[in-house]
Structures are given as structure tokens and as C-alpha cells.
Amino acid sequence: MSAASGARTRRHLRANVPVLGWLLATVVVAFAHRALPEAGWLLVHLLLLGAVTSAILVWSAHFTDALLRRRVTDRSRRWAAARLVALQAAVVLVVAGVLTGRWTMTLVGAALVGGVVAAHGAALALQVRSAGTLAGRFTVTIRYYVAASCLLPLGAAAGVLLARGLDETWHSRVVAAHGAINLLGFVALTVVGTLLTLWPTILRTRVPDGAERATRRALPVLLTGLAVVVGGALGGLALVAAAGVLVYLAGLGVAGRPLAQAARSAPPRTFPALSVAWSCAWLLGGLVALAVGVGTAGTWTQAAGRVGVATVPLVVGFALQVLLGALSSLGPVVLGGGPARVRASVATVERGATVRLVLLQGGLLLCVLPVPSLVRAVASMLVLGSALATVVLLVAAVRGVRRGDGDAKAPATDVARRTPVPAEPAAPERRRTGAAALATASLVLAVAAGVALDPAAAGLGPAASDSTTVASGRTTTVRVEAHAMRFEPASITVPAGDRLVIEVTNVDTDVHDLTLDSGHTTGRLSPGATVTLVVDVVGRDLEGWCSVVGHRQMGMVLGIDVTGEQPLADAGEHAGHAGHTDDGHADGEPPGPAGAPDDAAALLGTTDEPGPGVDPYDATLPPLDGPTTTTAADGTRTHRVRLDVSDQLTEVAPGVTQTLWTFGGVAPGPTLHGRIGDRFEVTLVNDGSIGHSIDFHAGALAPDRPMRTIAPGETLEYTFTATRAGIWMYHCSTMPMSAHIANGMFGAVVIEPDGLAPVDREYVLVQSELYLGAPGGEVDAAKIAAEAPDLVVFNGYANQYDHAPLQARVGERVRIWVLAAGPSRGTSFHVVGGQFDTVFHEGVYTLRPGTQSAAAGGGAQALGLTVAQGGFVELELPEAGTYPFVSHSMVDAERGAHGLLTVVDP
């Protein structure tokens, strides 16, 4: 390798280090997203703002120099390097500002991002102007770069507004505009302009005639479509935004025609070519889905909820995949080192190409289809593994060049000036077929694993027809809608022996299903989904219901009445109701493993100690200033909170597990802590299997929009200002509310009264009931209706503070906040051996030192709370010892509302 070639290779390596670094950071966040704040935001912005934007700065400058046949000076290199370094600092500031809730830091970072990219665009425009008539035929590519660079500052400004905090109406509008400007404007325009020359280069074919003209004509169409999308979003006009997407698609059609022509003349076979081709397919598919989803929405609120349908196709399918494909093509060539080294680098990035491509496309498809959440989780891991493998291979190719793999005699080839060295021959057809089969098998296993873990969500179960009835040969077809906890119609009449076809449509905002007592089921239906359920031969009356917890009890039942003669076939002495079993499983839940009890309550008392890895719920009141809390100059705090709804298999008593629906992965949900005047900006993300919502008692506002139910995969913004003190409940308000609360969807917001004195220890106890279903199953709605709880607990686990006592020292002042979350029982909180000298009940001090009651020698023995009430008590423990605390409704204490406070000498 010559000295000049080596210097060029080192420059390219240094320039692309940030790209690979941000990609690896994205992978790390993806693996650890459950434990990180703002994980969804991080994944999108580390990829797009970090990796993709860095790559655009590096490679748009590279292509501009090549297309203008411009001699690159040391001065221009230094300026380009300075812009790249400034961009990294800006991205770090933005990320740190969002994660810490420091808006000023976010503002500075976003302004720096916009300034750097705008300066980059200005530099490219000046280069075109300086080239004059010497500029090459493909200067239209640089026009795309300049246009894209002008758009990013606008997208950054929208991001700053979002970080500052907007009401829900404007938040959803600005989010849509922000995404459109950055993805369709900055990223997609850059890609379209680059593919004019890069795509034929990857395919090793000539640029089709008229390609420059088509690309030039497409630019104003694309910009017009983008402007209409942004205008429609900001105006809350769903049809206008959808029309803008269609105009944008038309522009892509104009620019894409010559690209398709090039692909016909030289079909894509290498990993880079196929990656870029698939990225374009995901771009088109995502935009079509977006246009349909937004265009068919009745209101902007509905449209905003559907914007997320395009996130995975556009961010991962398009942006990530086109970046990986471009790097896999450009990397080996610009690294250089001679033909042999280039071939060695190409061979490295081609390893396992078929497996990676199939896993990524198939996994993405599973992620966007209405599959069970566990299937989607496994599929996302396959997508992540495929992307990570590509990054690892790119790093391996770089290391190979630095080691000197291959022949180092020939000089490096400039990608935009000379034809690249041909790649190694494509893998034999048999090998590719085998690799594709292996990847497909992995996808099938992912689906099978997810379905096996959650068969009800996949609509599986026994599906026997009534084989004792003679078939009539006729078919009865009925349309049924699920809406407002009812099936419409609520009853069906079908002649005996007919084949019954039920077309079930969920027109509700919540997830439903239809399960028949014959074992037939539709599986879970997302809002708007339609599934056809078929019973081959109907020979008896059937009963149907929604098996989502609590929905049957609220009236979601369907009667199927059989009329006419019911002639029986010769079914032998064991003839009966095919598929019908009396197994005692309500709501269509499948029976547990052989030998397991039907009711988890049967396991209570079988062991005394919590299972391994079960940590006690931290009862300590969190600090006022959390990692995402900001304080303005006037002292006003803003708490930014993300609550991810998820289904969690959780131990609730020694040896007893239930699948709880949780806020933030725990039940109760995270305790929020503030003072009067504090602002709370809450992002609710539904990663669960059914619809959920949230209701904060700590805020006073119209419930219609912020408390609405959102479907799995959707996000909701809930903003309120705390105007009154107390310990306030928050909970899911989706019906049946009793089931959602009983299955873990509740938490506390502590708002301190003015002048609250400091104490030595401060704890929060949230009492709730558990109505146990099957082992590992969900709440038993019948027990809720009967008001027959199996457990009454503090902070989600029976007697947990007997195993891990709370701590205090003699003479310390201890404050205990208590909330009765229910859903049906209150509490009478008492500390055995202690007396309260301060009682704060529902916003009022009923006992306080220095007041008349205290001066008269008054004290308190219990804090009585009905459901959804709260308060706090204070006490000092006179001597060392173990002080039990209980609900003095003793049956509840014996059900698990019991703990210990260990007091030691100072």
C-alpha cells in the first residue's frame, strides 16, 4: 500500500468511526432497553441522529468531491473534520439533555446539530458554484444534499419544541411533522440523490439514460409532498397529510424509474445491492401503510395513533438497512489496498449474506404484523442480531485491511471515479438456498416459541367441530362486531347441521376476541381487525365470549341457537359435545400443565420464602429531583416520565406467580414525587397484549383524550400540573377497571404539602388486593365480582417486609405514606407498638404537633382509608425492637397486609 493510499485509508477509517460507534450504541440500547429511560427515543435518535447523520456528512462530502472532480485540500479536510466532530458533540448534548430533562442542554445541542448540517449544506453549495461549467453531469445529486441540509434545522427546531413540552394536541402534530422533516426530508432526500450514481455502481452497470433528468424532475415533487405532509400534520388535517404522502410517493416513482431499469439490466445479487433494494421496498411499503392509516382515520387523534405503524418500516427497514448496505459497498472500496485486499474485504462483508437478509426482512415483517407480543419480541432479537452481525463484519473488514490481508501492490480505487474491483463470485445457488432455509427455520422457530408461550394470543386451542351431527351441506354466514363490551348481534340463529362462518370485526379501541365453548377462537383482535371463525358442523347450542380478563363478566357474550332437527351420526358410546370440556377454566383460559392446580391460591403456604432472584419492592420515597427532572429559573419543576406497559410474570407470594399487567415493569408502578406547582409530562407506551390507559388523580383535567385506551404498540402523552397535596393514586381506567387495577395497573404520586418538615426516614406503602387465577395466569374476574381476594398486600407482594423489614433507628422520625389502591378494599394502617403524633388524611392534617389536638395530649393509632384514599403518618419509635405494621382489618393482615419495621439503637 502506497503512502498516499495509506493516508487516504486512515482518513476514511477515522471519518467512519462515529458511524460505527453510534450503530454499536444503538445495539447496546436495544439489548438493555427495559432498564433504560426513554429507550424508544434513544433507539431512534442514536440511529438516525447519530449514525445516519454522521454517515451523511461523511459520504455526501465524498460524493460531492468525486462528482465535481474536485481536488481536496488540507484546509477543506480540516473544516469537514471540524464539522463532524462538532456534530458528535451536538448529538451527545441532545441525548444528555433529553435523558436528564435539561431543556437548555437539549436546545444548545439541537441548535448545534442544525448549524453544523446547515454549514455542511452551504459548503456543498459553494463547491458547486465554484465548479461552474466544470461540474459533472450528476450535480443534481448535490442539489438533493443541499435541500436535505436545509431541512434538518427545521426538524431540529421541532424536536426542541417537543423536548420543551407541548399539550397533547400539539405534541402529536409536532411529532408527525418532526418525523416527516427528518426522515422524508433529510434522510430520504439524501438517499434518493445518492442512489442516482451509487445504485448503478453497486450493481456494476451503467447509469440508465435519462436518469439525471428523472432525478431532477422528482426533487420539486418530493419537496411539495413533504410540505403538504408537514402542513397537514401541523394543521391536524389527516386527509391533507395523507395526500402529501401520496404526492411524495409519486416523486419517488419518478426518481425510482431509472433505478428499476438499472436493476432489470443487472439484478441485485450481493449483500449491499439486496440491502439497498430491500430498504427501498420498506420505504415504499411504510409510506403506503402511512397514507392508508392516516387517510382512513376519522380524526387527527386517530391518525396520530396510526403514525407509529410506519416507524419500524421507515427507521429500521429503510434507514438502518440502506446505511448497512451502503457501508458494505463503499467500505471495501474506499479502504483500498489493491485488488486482492478489496476482494478480501468484499468477501468478509458477504459472509452469511443470505441468512442476514432473510432474518432481517422476515423479522421486520413479524414486527409489523399483528402477531402476539412474544413473537414480536423474539423477531426483534433476530433483526437486531442480523444488524449486529453486519456491523461486526464491517469492523472485521477494516481489521483485515489494516493487517494487510491480500495483495497490497495495486493502488486503491476511488468509488466514484473508477469501476470497483469485482467481488468474489456469488455463492453457489445450493449454498444460498440452504442459508435461506436456515434463516427461514429460525423465523419459524421464533413464531413457534412466541405462540407456545402465549397460545391464547395466537388464537390457538382445541378446535373440534360437533362430529355427532350430520352435515346439511349449507353454510350460514354471520357478521359480528365487538364494541363497548358487547357483541353485536348478541345472539345468532343457525339451522342444525350447517357450516357456520362468523366474520368477527373489532370496531372498539380495545383488544377483544371471540371464544366458543367448542374450543374455537379468533385469537386476539387488535382495533379494526377482522377474523373469520368457522365451525364446520353445528349440532348444538353454543356459547361464546371474549376471553380477555373481565370482558365476559361485563357482558361480552354471544349466544348461538340451533334450530330444526338435530340428526345424530353414529358416534359410538362416547358420543358427546365435541370439543367441549368441563375443565373449570373461565374466560377460555387453557388448562395449566398436567398436575398443576387450576387456581394459584392452592399454592399459598406451600413454601415460606420468596423465590431466588425476587427482590423486595423498594418502599423508600424517591427523591424530588430524579434523573429526568428539570428546574426552571422560577423554581418550577418538570418531571418527564416514561411508563411502559408490559405483561410480566411476577411472584406475588412465596411459590405463587401471576402474569401481571404493569406500569414500568413493576406492580405497583413507579412512585412519582413532586410538590405543588410541579409539572408532570408522562409518556405511556403500550407494550402489552391488550388495550390500556392511565388516569392520574393528581391532575385535574378533562379525561376524554389523556385517559383514553390505547392499543398495543401505541403511545399516549399525559401532562398535568400538581395543584394540591396528598398521595394520589394513578391507575389504568380501561374497562373492566376492577380487573386492570387488580392485575397490577396502579401506582402512587406523592405531592408534598407546603412546609412539610424533613424526617429521617420516609416510606411509601400501597395496599392492594390480588384475585389469583391459574398459576402464572392472569387475574380471576369472577373472584373480583364476588369480592373474594386471595391476598391483600403492601407494594405488590404478600408479607414481603416480613422477609425484608423496613429500617429505622431509635429516636428517628419516620414518615409513612399510605395509599389504598383497592380495587375494592380500604385499609386501617397501624404500627404495632407505635403511636402516631402526626396524621395527614386526604389533604388535611387531623393531628399535628403544635396544634390544639396535640397540645391536649392527642394521638392516633390507625390511619383509616377507603379505596383510592391516601395520607401519611409520622412517629418516633421509643426503643429498639421489631415493630409489625398491618392493616388492622385483621383478615387482610392475615392475607398478606403485614410487614416489619426493625428499629435499632443509634
TrEMBL record:
User: Which GO molecular function terms does the record list?
Assistant: copper ion binding; nitrite reductase (NO-forming) activity
| Annotated residues for binding of Cu cation | 692, 697, 731-732, 740, 745, 888
What superkingdom heads the lineage? Answer: Bacteria
Instruction: List, alphabetically, the InterPro entries matched.
Output: Cu-oxidase-like_N, Cu-oxidase_fam, Cupredoxin, EfeO_Cupredoxin, NO2-reductase_Cu
Q: Where is this region: Disordered?
A: 404-431, 570-633
EfeO-type cupredoxin-like domain boundaries: 472-535
| Segments traversing the membrane | 12-33, 39-59, 80-99, 105-128, 140-163, 175-199, 220-251, 271-295, 307-327, 374-398, 435-453
Q: Which reaction does it catalyse?
A: nitric oxide + Fe(III)-[cytochrome c] + H2O = Fe(II)-[cytochrome c] + nitrite + 2 H(+)
What are its cofactors?
Cu(2+); Cu(+)
Xref: Pfam families: Cu-oxidase_3 (PF07732), Cupredoxin_1 (PF13473)
Any idea of its EC number? 1.7.2.1
Q: Where is the Plastocyanin-like domain?
A: 650-754
Q: Where is the composition biased (Basic and acidic residues)?
A: 571-588
- Describe, as the record does, how this protein assembles with itself and its partners: Homotrimer.
Q: Family, per the entry?
A: Belongs to the multicopper oxidase family.
For this protein, the record's PANTHER family field holds: FI03373P-RELATED, MULTI-COPPER OXIDASE
Q: What is this protein called?
A: Copper-containing nitrite reductase
What does the record give as the organism's lineage? Bacteria, Bacillati, Actinomycetota, Actinomycetes, Micrococcales
